[in-house]
């Protein structure tokens, strides 16, 4: 008998596909939240594996803060076009105007928290009962404890004490009207697993994931891409650096890392060498307090 | 490189957090910013070293209440394997959490304090691991540094444990003397401190323990999750059954039966993402196309014609109750098994399993939170079950409250009445 052996990436892939198909089977109006980052790009590839030659049983939904990297937006539009799948974009800008929300000001101003308003509005507008996202448990300790099917109440809130036990590969997606479920198919993947999968699948990424020369502000020891959106202080110094982005979020809260990695092997080598965690290296939003992510999740964030 | 999923159970006192911290630290999975966060919290151990137990520190909600809410998942990898740790709190009231973490684990690490020997908690963790069908147990006799690395102490504990372990279903039990605090036999060996121990370190064992044969490749089970019908010009008549091979193997030409209808057909192709595969085996997610136009929908199961899978509505199961409100006979619940959901009634409680001794306690009139009981269940529609002991991937189910939709119980099929 031939030896039947499934490589770890195949096992992770099989698990993620199974989760996506459970979403398709259990929910009436699911959506895939697409950010233009590598994790959601990975989700799209997994959806192709799960549902081709059929269409995706959900649209791609992007909550656009208006502060995204233009490279990521371009990539998003091209991807939706190439896939022939539906893309829904909702803008934080519109929510701010309509609801007269006040924008955070000052040094750490970011629309990261305002995103949640637009997300909840979009969920309500389309009646989404499940939203697939690319969060991973290795990212952060609040995420380490979240379920693969994470039930949120009418306000999108996560309550760590009321989580449903999740056993075997059985996912309980039953919710009341108005509630919804956030689903995380790559919960068990690490940053390195994602990169190794991208390499194996030869997935094209927005070019900002690879080294390029960019004007950056040095802030709290981190390199922030210079843009019109970022808060500038008189003594800020703009420097030109060879950088890449390890995560891609808003330009206001995602830091670059110095890098010479011009291809995926270079990126993987740098991650193996790195002494700083992914969110630690690149996220300004988590640094604000030790429980920043836990608090945001309780408020309806991913 | 493959994956090993394991569970660690234990109290704060027996050094579980230190052990996990040590595994992560010594395999260089801890990043500088994470260490810095601990250092800046000012909490170090007496030697002025980073307290490794803090690496597994939890949520604010937990610290405020001094409790651990539930299972936390942690990840590390070596060149040989990716490891997924389900870290479950060990208190008796957290049986529910341990059951949850154990359900997906292939190996269980059970910590014994060398000064205290086999305790009630050791037995409880071993029994739960055994009930959940975990094939590999590793008994880490910890804090060997505090008993002078004494071989006699170790041997005595091993003997005591073996005496107790005769009742367990585990396929393989391994003993390792360790000091999580000092790092003996965690990643490196213990030639200096315990030259009398000739076995592998914990990490060496975790890297070597054979897990590929833990997948059942005998009984072919393919629960259909979703039907792919593109209805495009190119794929006008295409009908693909999407699902996961939870056990067994499938290839083109295999004769299959679709349950519960009993219709038969032949596999036309096995595919994934539009690519044809030679064969699918557990735990692959694939698409099956059949030669004949049979009526198949979500919840049906495609099995090989030669395989014996009975359709049953009544069965006995071991149920772990996970909700504050006790379960009483006659209670109606939703039952979810693979991609099927049906109503069911718990007709009778046969006995409660004492998870500290494995004794059966009879005359039980309700199942409380964290109890594990043998019950009789009748489902509203037919289910396609295997006994949990025969096929772990097709013998587990969850119970869901009909009004709150909370997951309130986990069950393992014990006997099936056809």
From TrEMBL, chain A:
Say yes or no: keyword Nucleotidyltransferase present. yes
Q: Name one Pfam family in it.
A: PAPS_reduct
Q: Looking at the keywords, is Nucleotidyltransferase present?
A: yes
Question: What EC number(s) does its UniProt record assign?
Answer: 2.7.7.4
Name of the top EC class for this enzyme: transferase
Which residue intervals define the domain Phosphoadenosine phosphosulphate reductase in the entry?
Answer: 30-255
Instruction: For this UniProt record, give its keywords in alphabetical order, as a comma-separated list.
Output: ATP-binding, Nucleotide-binding, Nucleotidyltransferase, Transferase
User: What's a single GO MF annotation on this record?
Assistant: sulfate adenylyltransferase (ATP) activity
Which Gene Ontology terms describe the biological processes this protein takes part in? sulfate assimilation
Q: Which PANTHER family match?
A: SULFATE ADENYLYLTRANSFERASE SUBUNIT 2 (PTHR43196)
Protein family per UniProt: Belongs to the PAPS reductase family. CysD subfamily.
According to UniProt, the name of this protein is: Sulfate adenylyltransferase subunit 2
* Species classification: Bacteria, Pseudomonadati, Bacteroidota, Cytophagia, Cytophagales
UniProtKB/TrEMBL annotation, chain B:
Q: What is its EC number?
A: 2.7.7.4
Residues forming the Tr-type G domain are 1-214
**GO MF, one annotated term:** GTP binding
Alphabetical list of CDD domains matching this protein: CysN_ATPS, CysN_NodQ_II, CysN_NoDQ_III
Q: Which domain of life is it from?
A: Bacteria
GO BP field: sulfur compound metabolic process
- Keyword Transmembrane (UniProt): no
Q: Which InterPro entries match?
A: CysN_GTP-bd (IPR041757), CysN_II (IPR044138), CysN_NoDQ_III (IPR044139), G_TR_CS (IPR031157), GTP-eEF1A_C (IPR054696), P-loop_NTPase (IPR027417), Small_GTP-bd (IPR005225), SO4_adenylTrfase_lsu (IPR011779)
What UniProt keywords are attached to this protein's entry? ATP-binding, GTP-binding, Nucleotide-binding, Nucleotidyltransferase, Transferase
| Record's protein name | sulfate adenylyltransferase
